[in-house]
Amino acid sequence: MLPYWESVSRRLQWTVLGVALLVGVGIGTAIAATRSSGAPSTPVSATNAVTSPQLDPGSPLNAVAPAFALTDQFGKRVSLRSLRGKVVVLSFNDPQCTTICPLTTTALLHAKQLLGPAASGVELIGIGANPEKTQVKWVRDYSDVHGMLHRWRFLTGSLPQLKRVWAAYGIEASVLNGTIDHTPATFVIDQRGRESRLYLTEMAYSSVDELGYEIAQSISALLPGHPQLHGSPSLGQPVLHGPRARVTLPRAGGGTVRLGPGSGPHLVLFFDTWEAELTNLRAQLEGLDRYQAVAKREGLPPLVAIDEAGVEASPAALPRFLGSLPHPLSYPVAVDRDGTVADGFRVQDSPWLELVSRSGKFLFYEDLAVKGWPKLPALLRRVRVARTK
Predict the structure, then answer these.
(1) pTM above 0.85?
(2) Of 2, 23, 100, 230, which residue is least crowded by CB atoms under 10 Å?
(3) Yes or no: is domain 10-220 CATH 3.40.50.970?
């Protein structure tokens, strides 16, 4: 994967094939090579929607998918054999992930939506990829907060059981420096239980729908009659809106928010409402009202929050969350519907904080999911120091 930052986020440092990745050998190709039987694989439909360099077009596979029998979010036993006759889309996800996993699962839901009525022949399956969060509670909580409770089967088991499945599918999952690293793999498995294609999710919000379209094409190629998709891919490479680009975003509750040249320096917070599963999001957002008050008094860069709507459980998630707060926030909350602002600002996690200058220069960034939310004195100190550089 080619990250935006010069150094890859710790959450994206895979422990397998690291050397191959650095020299340009894709993980998808490597896993495909080890799992292919050499026979022709089922082709994807002729129309290839790949336009974004952050999108994995998938690698063909042709091998028997390793068997598994694990427990879903409702405590029910699910085996791969029990799903014969359906196309299975199998992804490996950390139930506490704040980076790639929400992008992956959003793409899976989009893929199934594109299939229309033909989606009845498809089963979405997730398998937990966090060695420390193996209880059913975690896969249920993830499914619930991402609006997927009844839209897929998120499986888990004992750590030895999971390790056997990870090994069988070539998945690395481990704890490094206190964070979870795992191979972000999604397999498409045909009705006979054979692997057909492998996708690896990149850290790119703007490519989520396109990844869903690619996966949907792979599924369609396996379904009877190869049903047409109910939608079309975006055309051309996404135009990203970084801090040097003028962009106007819709504001939650009405109005707009302007960023870029002419709008002045800003402290920008990227977040998602599903983070409330992992942190006291309400208290943290309300706490930033104090920063906004000091910034107004001292002429510091004002705060703008941006919700990544593309990976929310539904369009109602943000209004519902903001409506649950005892008081309206004193700073604007903008909506990034297609992820082009997050990618333009090089966001690699959620929540993510950046200070940008009047000219659009990055002055600092903070991965709040890893380092935690800053206390007000520390945040003010950092902003003041960065402005003097």
Answers:
(1) yes
(2) 23
(3) no
Banded model confidence at residue 73, pLDDT cuts 50, 70, 90: very high
Instruction: List, as one string, the DSSP characters of 101-168.
Output: HHHHHHHHHHHHHHTGGGGGGEEEEEEE--TT--SHHHHHHHHHHTT-TTTSEEEB--HHHHHHHHHH
Query: Could you say which DSSP state residue 266 is in?
Result: E
Q: In which residue ranges of the chain is CATH 3.40.30.10 found? A: 10-220, 247-387
Q: Is 342 helix (H, G, I), strand (E, B) or coil?
A: helix
Per the CB < 8 A criterion, the answer to whether 213 and 22 are in contact is: no
Question: How would you class 19 by CB atoms within 10 Å of its CB: exposed for 0-12, middle for 13-18, buried for 19 or more?
Answer: exposed
**Which residue shows structure tokens 């930052």?**
5
Residue among 334, 222, 170, 174 nearest 268 (CA): 334
Buried b (16+ CB within 10 A) or exposed e, 266-303: bbbbbbbbbbbbbeebeebbeebeebbeebeeeebbbb
Residue with tokens 């791969």: 80
Find the range with the poorest average confidence among 25-34, 198-207, 345-354. 25-34
The mean pLDDT value for 6-10 works out to: 30
The token pair at 306 is 């941006």
Instruction: Please state which CATH number belongs to domain 247-387.
Output: 3.40.30.10
CA gap 156, 106 in Å, rounded: 20
pLDDT digits (tens, 9 = 90+) for 201-228: 999 999 999 999 999 999 999 999 999 9
CA distances from 159 to 139, 163, 165, 277, 342 (A): 14, 6, 10, 23, 35
pLDDT tens column, 272-290: 999 999 999 999 999 999 9
Instruction: Give the pLDDT score at 308.
Output: 98
Q: Which residue has the tokens 């975003």?
A: 249
Question: Percentage of residues in the chain with pLDDT exceeding 90?
Answer: 78
For residues 162 and 135, what is the distance between their CA atoms, to the nearest angstrom? 11
In 3D, which of 273, 272, 241 has the Cα closest to residue 257?
Answer: 241
Give CA–CA dist 227/308, Å, rounded: 31
Label residue 53 by pLDDT band (50, 70, 90): low
How far is 376 from 44, CA to CA, in rounded Å?
52
